[in-house]
## 1
Amino acid sequence: MRREVNYDEVFDAQQQFRIILDSMSRPGKINQMPQMDIEPPAGINNASVLIGFALLNADVSFFVAGDNSAAITPYIALNTTAQPKSINDADFIFMDGLDDEALIAEAKTGTLSYPEESATIIISVDEISEDVLTGSVKLILKGPGVETKMQVGLSGLNPEILNAVKEQNLEFPLGIDVILVDKDNSIVCIPRSNRFVVELNEAKLIK
C-alpha cells in the first residue's frame, strides 16, 4: 500500500476535475488524463486512479469490484480518505470492462427527492478510440451536450455492461453516470441523461 507523494491534492486534482467536467458535459468527446508518476496496485489503471483522486474525499464512499480489490481498496482509501462500502451503498464504483454486467443492477440510482445520491461508475477498458476497431463495441451518444451524435469505439468492454446501464437510466433523473477510461489515459463519459446506443462493430444491434 503506497501513499502517492508526487500527487498534488490541490493543483493536480483541480486540473483533472476540469477534464472530467468537460468530458461529462460533452458526452462522446475523448479527453486525455495527464501522465503522472503514480504506482497503483495491479488491477487498476492510472486513469481510473486519477479520477478517484480528483473526485473522492472523506465525504463520499467507494467500492472496488474484481479479484484485486483487496489491494486496490486500501490504496484508494489511503490516498483519498474516502470510505469503502458495499456496492449497494457506494457513491463511486470501480470496475473492469470485462466484469459481470450484474454489478450494474446493484449500484444505487438515487431517489426522486435526491437523484444526486446515485452512483458514478468508473470502468476500465483496453482502448477508447474515434474509430470502431475489429472486435470492439460502437457507442453512439445522443442527447444533451451532443449537437447531433457522437461515435466512440471501445475495446475490452463487455457490451452488456452498457445495456445494463441503459436499463438503470430509463427513469431519468434516476440513474447512474459512467466514466470510461483506457490504458492510454483516454476518458469518455456517459451522463445518465444521455440516450446512447450500443452496437457491435459489424453494426449488429445489441438490444
## 2
Amino acid sequence: MDNNIALSVKNLTKYFYEPETFQVLKDISFDVQKGEFLSLVGKSGSGKSTMLYVLSSMDTDYEGSLEINNVMLTGKTQNELAAFRNANIGFVFQFHYLLPEFSSLDNVMLPALKLGQKSKEEIEHDALENLSLLGLKEQALKSANKLSGGQQQRVAIARALINNPSIIMGDEPTGNLDSKNTKIVFDIFKQLAREKGQTIITVTHDDDFAANSDRIIELQDGELLK
C-alpha cells in the first residue's frame, strides 16, 4: 500500500457490445501520484474518454481493477460508488452543466448540500471562497445563464472543488474555451495540484495544455503508448 498513490488501475480491459463486440481498452495499467497533473491524450476513438469514465467509477462494466486512495472500487455497488465519488472526486466537463436559472453561488453549493456533512452556512462560506479563488466573487449572485462561457466554466470548477475532492477529473475541460480562458483554467489546475496537493486527470485534445501538465498518457487504439 503506497500512500503517495492517488489512483491505481491494473489490467483494465473494456469491451463495447453494440452494434458488435469491440475491445475499446486493452490491458491498461498505471498509477497516478497524489498532487500529479496528468493529461490523457489520443486521437478521437482512441478510448481516452471511455477510460476517464472507468477511472471515475461511473462506468463499472470492465475487467481489471480500480483503486482510489487505497480503496478498491471494483466490485462496489452503484450506491457505494456514488457516495465515494461525491466525497472524493470533482468533475469538470466540456459543457459546464450548470443549472441556468440558479445563481453561481447556488450551483457551486449543490454537491455539498447533497453530501450533507456541513451546515448551509458553512457550505455558502466555502462556495464564496471557491468563487473568490477563481476570480468570480462579484458574479456570485448572478444567474449562470448571464455569465460568459469562460466564467461558466470557472463556476463549474468551483463546484467541482466544493467537497474538497482529492481528485479532479476533466473531460475536455477547455474544449469550448478560447486560448485566454484555456490558460486561466490550466493555471487554476496547476495551482490546485501545487498548493492543495489535489490530483488532476484531464482528457484533452489541446497539445499545449497537455505538454505543460506533469505527465502525458497517450492512448492509441485502446492501448497505452509507452
## 3
Amino acid sequence: MPESLRPSPSALAVLSLLRAGPMHPYAMQRLIKLWGKDQVVNVGQRANLYKTIKRLHAAGLIAVRQTERDQQYPERTVYEVTDAGRAAVQDWLTDMLARPRNEFPQFPAALSFLMMKPPAEASELLQERAQALRGQLASLEADLTGYAAMLPKIVLMDDDYQRAMVAAELAWVEAVISDLRSGELTWSYEDFAALAEFGFGSEGDPMAEPPG
C-alpha cells in the first residue's frame, strides 16, 4: 500500500460498501445519503468521492469489475473490493475503533485562546454556539427516530454517538456560560498579556533555559 494512502472516513465507507457487493460511485453516494451517513462521510460533492475511489484503485484496494452502459444514464464504472482491500478495511476499522486520535478540531483550539475575547463577548458567543448545538441535537434525535423505523440499531451507532457527543458538549457549554454569568469565571487582557510572557528565558526566547 502506498505511504501516502491513509485511512479516512470516505475511504472506509467505499471499502465497506464494496464488501457488500460491486457498486458504481453514484450508487455509493446514494446509499451513504439514504442511510444518513453523509453526516460523518463527506460525499456532498461527488468529485470528492471520485478522488477517494481513484486513490483506492491506484493502491490496489479496489478494482474495476465492469462498465455499465444505459441509454438513460452516462457510462458508469462498477468497482469491486480486492483481497488487499478486504484486509485493509479490517485493519482500518480495528485502528479507528480501538485507538483514539487527536484530530485537532477547531473548537478546543479556539477555547485555548478564549482569553483574547472579553468575558461578556465570550459568553455571547458561547450562547450562540449553545443555540446551534440545541438545533443539532434536535435534528439528530429526529433522524434517529426516523431511521430507526427502517434500519437496525447497529447501523445507527454513529448517529447515537454523535447525539451523545453533542448533548455532552451542550451541557459543558451551558455550564461555562453559567460560570461566566455568575462571575465565577472571568479574566482580563492583562491576565492574557501576563500569560504570554510566562516561560520566557533571560534572552526573551520562549525556548531558552530559565536562569539559575
